[in-house]
Each structure stands twice: as C-alpha cells, then as structure tokens.
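Budget justification aside, the reviewers requested a transparent look at the raw inputs and outputs of the sequence design task funded under Objective 1. We therefore reproduce one unedited record. The lines immediately below are the structure tokens for a 363-residue chain.
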C-alpha cells in the first residue's frame, strides 16, 4: 500500500512516496499521475508513469509553455534505489545553492557511504569471502574527466578518493593497496569499515551451505549510482559500492569501470548501472545507454534496450538482476531493470520522490 507523506524539503512542498521494505515484493498495478502548475513561470507540467500488463513502463514527460517547446528540467539529481532519497538530499544542498553537478554527485553519495546501516555501500558494506570490506567507486564530470578506485580497503569515502585520482593524477584508476596508499597520502583517515553487524552476516554466511558454491544473490548488491545536471546544464555522475557480497577477494564489478557502471557525455546524457556487475560489463552497460541516447532514444528507451541486450546475451537469467538509470540533456530520465523491484530517487525543485522503474519480468 502506498502512503503519501507531505513534508518540507529545502523550503518547498514535496510529496514522498515511501519505500516499502522489501524491494522484491510483488506490487499491484499502479499509476502515478501528477499535475502541478508553477504559477510564477506559468508553466504546466504533466508526468505519467504507468506500467503495462507486460511489465513495460511507458513514460511520458510533457513540460512546456504550451507552444510545443520543452523546458529543460534543471537542476535535477537522480540516484539508484531507496537509499537515493537520503543521498539526493546531500546532492540537492549543493545544487540548490547553484553549485556544480560534480560537487553534487560526490556529496550526495557520501551520505550513503557513511550510512553504517547500509550493507552494500561504504561503511557497513558486506565483506568479501575472506571477511575484508573492499570498495569500488568512480566519478565523471561534464568534460569527460574521470577517476576511479577499485578494491580499496579501510577508507570511508572511495568516491572522494576517485575524485582525487581524477584531479590530482594523470591516471583514471587506482586499485587495492595502491589506492589505499594514495588515499592516505591525500589525508583520508584509516577506518575499519567492517561493522559488527556486517561481520555477523559474514560469519553466518560462512557457516551456511551457500558459501560452497558461487551464488548470485540479488539481495546482496545495491550500489548507489547518481546522475546530476546543474543549473548551468552540465552533467556529472558518481557510482560507489561494496559490490557483490562475499565475492572472491580482488573481484571488481562494473561500478568502478567508466563505461560500465557509469558514463557521462555532456553533449548527450549520463547513465549508471546497478546489479550484477559481470553482466553489465559484458555489454559496456552505461556507455551503451548513452550511445543509444546519442542515436535518438529517450532515456527510458535506452535503458530498456540495454536491458534487452543483457537478456539476449545471457542464457541463464536466474537471479540476474541489472538495472539502468539514465538522464538526457533535457533533464528527462529513464530507468529499467531485468526483474521487478528496481527503484530510484528523483529530486528537482518541485519534487523529491521515489519512482518504481519498469522491468522485463517478475522474480
Ligand atoms: C557490482 N554492480 O559490484 C555492483 C553491485 C551493484 O546493486 O550494483 N549492486 O557488481
């Protein structure tokens, strides 16, 4: 059952659609229809998201002055999953003051990285098979500068280390001990990221049957990917995760890989991915979504096409969840996943909301 809650967000009236705990529950058919009139500008906006019987989502955003022209929706920030609601608050603090998209996507996901209750990003993330928390992150700006860290340990904010790699080195990616040493050199404090709760989960997993064979557990990985467009119309993106829980030590997923977990092209749009990284890498996922937009697809159509490509390339889709989130230069957004359950947070000056993505199939 959906509960609608009104609250104050940055001095603006917002409607929040709260998250219902299990992301993977079956949900009844639902339509969101919103009408809002922005008096001062005399602009009318109508947004419709409706899921069809097939599970397909048809999204239509009309926003204009009634003369057929479209307003660019900016600033705007979107991010993956329910934890994106809090992360978007962090990003919005930057954007509402006229700050740039790069600062916004860094500050935004730092909120999630510091949330010890979140078992899939930063502090409190579930460890690898050996009980070590290893983090992956990347960041990209409107000039296509990018930075990344992979398999970094004991640093709370891998996204900020990725930004330092981008800004202070001639490289794009540092991994493992090299990434940790670089972070320490740059003044990032050492921090044990393995919380007692995450350690208990790992010990339980070690005693269970499941650790004897590799298993795709869709509940074990929920990256945060964030895309923002600032008031100047510039795009940036970030992506950060503790990755696939109980993975082999040293495993990298898509999240630190530019073009897989994240891609930004300021002429076209931006995309990020969540879910099973191995599948995203196989189709250069986020880059693919951006290229589809370059070739005329809407963000929604591009995400759907990329998901269809993943489905076509995998014989066994059992448990294989992947979701894409995208934004174009008009501030239009799209999201789609293999299985039901993916959602994303969207924040503009008018709304702060959690939106269910379309999907190809039910679990
Ligand atoms: C990974 N793609 O390490 C990440 C995990 C993830 O939602 O996105 N979870 O494969």
């Amino acid at each position: 059952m959906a509960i609608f809650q009104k609250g104050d967000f940055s001095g603006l009236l917002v409607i929040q659609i709260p998250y219902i705990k299990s992301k993977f529950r079956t949900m009844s058919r639902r339509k969101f229809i919103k009408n809002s009139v922005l008096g001062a500008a005399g602009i009318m906006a109508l947004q419709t998201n409706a899921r069809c019987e097939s599970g397909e989502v048809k999204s239509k955003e009309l926003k204009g002055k009634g003369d057929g022209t479209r307003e660019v929706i900016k600033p705007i920030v979107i991010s993956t999953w329910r934890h994106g609601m809090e992360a978007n608050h962090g990003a919005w603090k930057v954007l509402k003051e006229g700050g740039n998209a790069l600062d916004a996507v860094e500050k935004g996901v730092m909120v999630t990285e510091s949330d010890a209750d979140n078992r899939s990003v930063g502090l409190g993330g579930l460890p690898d098979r050996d009980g070590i928390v290893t983090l992956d992150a990347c960041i990209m700006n409107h000039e296509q500068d990018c930075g990344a860290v992979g398999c970094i340990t004991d640093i709370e904010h891998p996204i900020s280390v990725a930004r330092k790699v981008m800004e202070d080195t001639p490289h794009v990616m540092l991994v493992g001990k090299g990434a940790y040493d670089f972070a320490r050199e740059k003044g990032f404090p050492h921090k044990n990221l393995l919380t007692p709760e995450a350690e208990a989960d790992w010990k339980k997993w070690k005693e269970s049957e499941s650790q004897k064979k590799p298993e795709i557990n869709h509940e074990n990985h929920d990256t945060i990917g964030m895309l923002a467009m600032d008031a100047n119309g510039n795009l940036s993106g970030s992506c950060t995760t503790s990755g696939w829980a109980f993975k082999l030590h040293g495993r990298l997923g898509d999240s630190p890989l530019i073009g897989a977990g994240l891609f930004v092209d300021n002429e076209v749009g931006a995309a990020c991915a969540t879910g099973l990284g191995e599948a995203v890498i196989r189709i250069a996922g986020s880059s693919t979504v951006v290229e589809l937009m370059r070739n005329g697809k809407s963000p929604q159509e591009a995400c759907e096409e990329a998901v269809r490509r993943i489905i076509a390339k995998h014989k066994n889709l059992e448990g294989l969840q992947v979701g894409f989130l995208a934004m174009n230069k008009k501030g239009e957004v799209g999201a789609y996943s293999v299985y039901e359950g993916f959602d994303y947070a969207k924040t503009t000056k008018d709304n702060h909301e959690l939106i269910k993505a379309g999907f190809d199939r039910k679990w």
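Residues 124 and 195 are 5 Å apart (CA to CA). Confidence is low (pLDDT under 50) at residues 1-63, 214-218. Computational costs for records of this kind are itemized in the attached budget.
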